[in-house]
Amino acid sequence: MGCDASVLLNTSTANPNPENAEFFKMRGYYLIDAAKAAVEKNCSRVVSCADILAFAARDAFYLLGGKYDSDLYDVSAGRRDGNISLLSEAVTFLPRPTFNFSQLNSSFAAKGFTTDEMITLSGAHTVGQAHCTSFAQGRLYPNYDPKQIDSDYAKALQSVCPNNTNNNVVVPQDNVTPNTTDAQYFTNVLNKKVLFFSDWALSTDPVARQTMQTYQSNTIEVYLLGIKFINGNDLWKSKFIAAMQKLGQLDVLTGDQGQIRETCGAVYVPPNN
């Protein structure tokens, strides 16, 4: 449903099978709830949960990236919260970890994003964790394909993700710098040391490989009046910021659309007069 915090809605009569159902195993909602509670104390039902999510994403990028001022990118405010959350729509429209390159491209293109933006945004997998159940079957079991995943990496994953493992077991998406927003993810992709098939799929396209290589190395561009040194990590960050700002404008509700929730997990119902 776009940037309307529909992902935060809990199961209810109106939303019996919401996006945050057991299917996605997402965590961290307590942080958003804490931010919302703090804001509500000062200005009740003025700041939307959708805006809080957008600012929280920016602040996480800043905090995990080394706290550089350039990472504190501008975030537009004024979104309103949606009233509908459907797991079926999330399954239909969100890119899946089993997607190949063509499917990834089509999924992002359907929302107005270029191939370059899709590759750049995939770098969000530089942080975070994934449940074994989201990648083990097919990637590790019944057998792994050494053409798609590094053998040593696959064996290490198998040691923490046994076949038919418990749903609660998680592993970092970036096993080199798991708590840092950087371009290491793209090195991992090219080295076949990533969790999802969709991550590895980026390396199957020659243009995508070239893009990822620019993110993992330093280059020099020569001009008539001099040279320009380009740090690959900084290049990815700058393009990621631009793509995130575009993403933050996706299908937003404004004006009298939607509502401002009182708590992020439930649609606001005005008290009876």
Named CATH architecture of the domain at 1-98 and 250-273 = Orthogonal Bundle
User: SSE order, as H and E?
Assistant: HHHHHEHHEHHHEEH
Q: Give the terminus-to-terminus CA distance.
A: 31 Å
Specify the CATH class of the domain at 1-98 and 250-273. Mainly Alpha
Number of helices: 11
The percentage helix is 25-40%
Any overview of this molecule?
By secondary structure, this protein is mostly helical. The chain has a domain at 1-98 and 250-273: Peroxidase, domain 1 (Orthogonal Bundle). It has eleven helices and four strands, in the order H-H-H-H-H-E-H-H-E-H-H-H-E-E-H. It has helices at residues 29-42, 49-64, 87-93, 101-109, 115-122, 136-139, 151-160, 184-190, 197-201, 206-215, 232-247; strands at residues 129-131, 170-172, 219-223, 226-230. The strands form two sheets. Strands 1-2 form a two-stranded antiparallel ribbon. The radius of gyration is 20 Å and the shape is globular. The relative contact order is 0.18. The model has no long low-confidence stretch (mean pLDDT 93). It holds the Pfam family peroxidase. It catalyses: 2 a phenolic donor + H2O2 = 2 a phenolic radical donor + 2 H2O. Ca(2+) 2 binds at residues 126, 174, 177, 182. Substrate binds at residue 95.
